[in-house]
């Protein structure tokens, strides 16, 4: 399971206040599903838009792979594209399951009308893996770079993560100013200025992202569980 903010809030409530929302958008708790639906203000790093385009790419590569195996009429393409698991708008729960690397039963049942299960799994598995590698590089790693900068702004250091609750200042009042700067408690305007300044300040931030993206070119087996 990816260590999203809600997971960290459960594991280390003395470091991560339960009131804090997603550091990227400050509009919802950051749980696993929020990673793909976060309406982050910067369009080029918007997880929601990235997720949509990756779902479309995955759907289209599945479609062309199956069509290359057998000639099928246009109704196959129409019905395949209309399956609930490709509904990225909401997104549907089956789309979120697919994002986690699980094949929805209705997808395999539909394909099973045309192909044996062994062919379905053999065709989809590498494409599903590519889909997850892309999401990992384009969304999770980018989120981690920003999250790290945000943790620093909250006074959460690597050392404080190693220390237990007894030696940490939160939720005691020894450093109230630090924790009063929580993004969850500031207005949207000042949050946007925080995020802008953090991007400008960290000139290395974007180049760091490029570096991380290059790393994801290597084959990886990723599970979001
Ligand atoms: Zn968010």
Q: In sequence order, what are the helices and strands, one letter per element?
A: HHHHHHHHHHH
Specify the helix fraction band. Answer: 55-70%
Strand content: under 5%
Structural class: mainly alpha
Region (Disordered): 161-181
Biased composition (Polar residues): 165-181
At a glance:
The protein is mainly α and about 220 residues long. It is about 60% helix and about 0% strand. Helix 7 (about 115-155) runs antiparallel to helix 11.
Question: In words, what does this structure look like?
Answer:
The protein is mainly α and 225 residues long. It has one domain. Helix content is 59%, strand content 0%. Helix 3 (47-69) runs antiparallel to helix 7 (117-153). Residues 171-192, 199-208 and 215-221 have low confidence and may be disordered. It binds zinc ion (ZN). Zinc ion binds next to loops.
Give keywords.
225 residues; 11 helices; elongated; binds zinc ion
SSE blueprint and pairings:
Layout: H1 5-11, H2 32-37, H3 47-69, H4 74-81, H5 93-99, H6 105-111, H7 117-153, H8 158-162, H9 176-180, H10 188-201, H11 203-215
Helix pairs in contact: 3-7, 7-11
The structure holds zinc ion.
Biased composition (Polar residues): 165-181
Region (Disordered): 161-181
């Amino acid at each position: 399971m990816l260590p999203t903010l809600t997971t960290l809030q459960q594991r280390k409530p003395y470091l991560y206040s339960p009131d804090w929302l997603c550091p990227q958008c400050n509009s919802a708790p950051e749980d696993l599903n929020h990673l793909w639906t976060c309406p982050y203000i910067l369009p080029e790093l918007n997880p929601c838009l990235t997720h949509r385009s990756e779902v479309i790419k995955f759907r289209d590569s599945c479609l062309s792979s199956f069509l290359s195996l057998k000639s099928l009429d246009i109704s196959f393409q129409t019905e395949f594209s209309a399956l609930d698991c490709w509904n990225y708008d909401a997104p549907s729960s089956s789309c979120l399951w697919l994002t986690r690397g699980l094949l929805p039963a209705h997808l395999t049942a539909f394909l099973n009308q045309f192909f044996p299960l062994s062919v379905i799994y053999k065709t989809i598995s590498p494409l599903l893996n590519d889909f997850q590698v892309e999401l990992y590089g384009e969304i999770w790693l980018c989120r981690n770079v920003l999250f790290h900068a945000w943790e620093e702004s909250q006074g959460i250091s690597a050392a404080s993560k190693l220390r237990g609750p007894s030696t940490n200042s939160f939720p005691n009042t020894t450093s109230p100013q630090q924790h009063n700067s929580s993004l969850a408690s500031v207005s949207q305007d000042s949050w946007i200025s925080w995020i802008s300044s953090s991007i400008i300040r960290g000139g290395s931030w974007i180049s760091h992202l490029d570096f991380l993206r290059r790393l994801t070119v290597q084959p990886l087996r990723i599970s979001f569980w």
